């Protein structure tokens, strides 16, 4: 009998300025596996919104990179591509942050604050939500959940949380931790990811010795 849960990890490139934040993604995966669960990596195919030189933070105008190929820099193993008829069973979903999450998923690249979440990611997350699958966001991925499902209660967000805090909306099974927005170093970032996994899958408390 399967005891561990399957937790989706949505990756949208590799790099805090133009993709998924690698540290948030890796430490989220670590927290999932520490709790005895299985990471199911997910991504999209297609060109990134743009490419940023992470040394200078300048846009590399002549470079083009594929979201899936860049995501594979973070995760070694099978990455399920949304939109190919692939519908893996998931018990929870985590969206790590990074500027590229907003740039890749919102129709306006996050520029106006009015963009909608692109397909097939929007439909995939709505189906999970309708099936009562818990969804957790880290840092800037907050904007994806807010666009799809509305704001968190009281209009609260990442800036209202301590580094290892989790904003919980148990009625809608939506959860948020601030990640790199508030964490002062890797230990705090790791604790935030563990707290998110605890909120998504409460039985994880036993695995972390709490």
What report would you give on this structure?
The structure is a single chain. With 210 residues, the protein is of the alpha/beta class. The chain has one domain: Class I glutamine amidotransferase (GATase) domain (Rossmann fold). Helix content is 30%, strand content 14%. It contains seven helices and seven strands; from the N terminus they run βαβαββααβαββαα. It has helices at 22-34, 67-71, 99-105, 121-130, 142-149, 186-200, 204-207, and strands spanning 6-10, 38-43, 79-81, 92-95, 135-138, 167-169, 174-177. Strands 3-2-1-4-5-7-6 form a seven-stranded mixed β-sheet, sandwiched between helices. Strand 6 (167-169) and strand 7 (174-177) form a beta hairpin. It starts with 5 loop residues before the first strand and ends with a helix.
| Strand adjacency order, main sheet | 3-2-1-4-5-7-6
- Terminal residue distance: 25 Å
Distinct helical segment count? 7
The name of the CATH architecture is: 3-Layer(aba) Sandwich
Largest sheet: 7 strands, mixed
| Beta strand count | 7
Task: Give the helix level as a range of percent.
Answer: 25-40%
Number of domains: 1
N-to-C series of helices and strands:
EHEHEEHHEHEEHH
Would you tell me which CATH topology applies?
Rossmann fold
Shape: globular
CATH structural class: Alpha Beta
Average pLDDT rating = 88
- Give the strand content: 5-15%
Structural class: alpha/beta
pLDDT < 50 stretches: 206-210
In CATH, the homologous superfamily goes by the name Class I glutamine amidotransferase (GATase) domain
Radius of gyration: 16 Å
């Amino acid at each position: 009998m399967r005891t561990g849960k399957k937790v989706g990890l949505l990756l949208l490139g590799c790099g805090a300025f133009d993709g998924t934040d690698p540290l948030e993604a890796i430490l989220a995966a670590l927290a999932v596996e520490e709790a005895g669960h299985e990471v199911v990596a997910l991504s999209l195919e297609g060109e990134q919104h743009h490419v940023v030189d992470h040394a200078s933070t300048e846009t590399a105008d002549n470079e083009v990179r594929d979201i899936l190929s860049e995501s594979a820099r973070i995760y070694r193993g099978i990455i399920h591509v949304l939109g190919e008829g692939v519908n893996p069973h998931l018990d929870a979903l985590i969206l790590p942050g990074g500027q590229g999450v907003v740039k890749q998923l919102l129709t306006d690249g996050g520029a106006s604050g009015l963009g909608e979440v692109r397909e097939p990611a929007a439909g995939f997350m709505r189906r999970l939500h309708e099936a009562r699958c818990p969804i957790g966001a880290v840092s800037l991925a907050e904007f994806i959940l807010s666009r799809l499902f509305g704001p968190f209660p009281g209009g609260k967000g990442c800036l209202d949380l301590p580094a290892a805090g989790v904003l919980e909306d148990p009625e809608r099974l939506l959860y948020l931790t601030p990640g790199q927005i508030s964490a002062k170093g890797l230990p705090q970032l790791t604790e935030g990811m563990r707290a998110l996994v605890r909120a998504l899958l409460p039985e994880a408390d036993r695995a972390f010795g709490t």
